[in-house]
Fold this sequence. Notes:
The protein is an alpha/beta fold. It is built from 14 helices and 13 strands.
Amino acid sequence: MKPTILIIGATGRVGSQVVCQLSSSDEVKIRLTSQHLGVVQKWQSNGQDAAVLDLNNPDTFGPALAGIDGVFLLTTYTSDMLAQSKQLVDAAKLKRVSYIVHLGVFTSRNDKIPHFIWHDLIERYIESSGIAWTHLHPNVIADSILVTDPPISETGSFTVFWGDAPQGWVFVEDIAAVAAAVLKEGPAKHGGKNYWMSTEVLTGRQVANILSESSGLDIKCNEMTPDALTAHLQNITSTSVRAYMESAAITMKLAATGQMQAQTVVRDDVLKVLGRPGTSMADWAKRNLRSES
């Protein structure tokens, strides 16, 4: 029998691409989840296996996990991720889920960044559950900076909040492809492993130069300081969201001052899992940015 994989965040930036990757596979079945009943009903009306799963409502966990073999676990960008993940893992254990693939961060396991520490704790809890596991560790997700509305091909610029410091970069398409491969091939091959994804180390200005050269467009990088992000934090009314964004601001400050050496590395486990290197900035630009001339 084909294993059934539950996808959390099926409509999100990463989860939706994992769904696309797995939908074309005849090796697994997938169950889509959303906190919105209307979205789930639409999927079901299209003949797809779907269930309501609200990470803030543990009562939805059991029904969604019934009959599931593997889980792609990502959480909300709030401090609630700790409670959400613990209760989700507990529910998965009760439902005899055999495999969890967790999307975390590019941790050194010794970072002074709250949300990095939260991911460390979540991963240790998964490991202690007795459920087979694989942890995915993407560095800066390039799409979150470069895929904008309106697109950078129109605006001619993108913004970073760590000044002229270098960062390690990876694209969503690679994260999703690795996640899909790991979920399809299962714990016999990937159980107990950590996969690190940091394809290139570049400053924002270097990224802009590569994008410009590869696309024929004139792309600029707005090199902002972390203070520009911090100034907006007081306007966030949700305590849990603000806690996460305050942690993100700490990340920017450490990056800007050169205190994230463990993250400023190339470590391309996309190649290890998929047999091909991770997507470069130049390749992404050639496929996604076009000059009108």
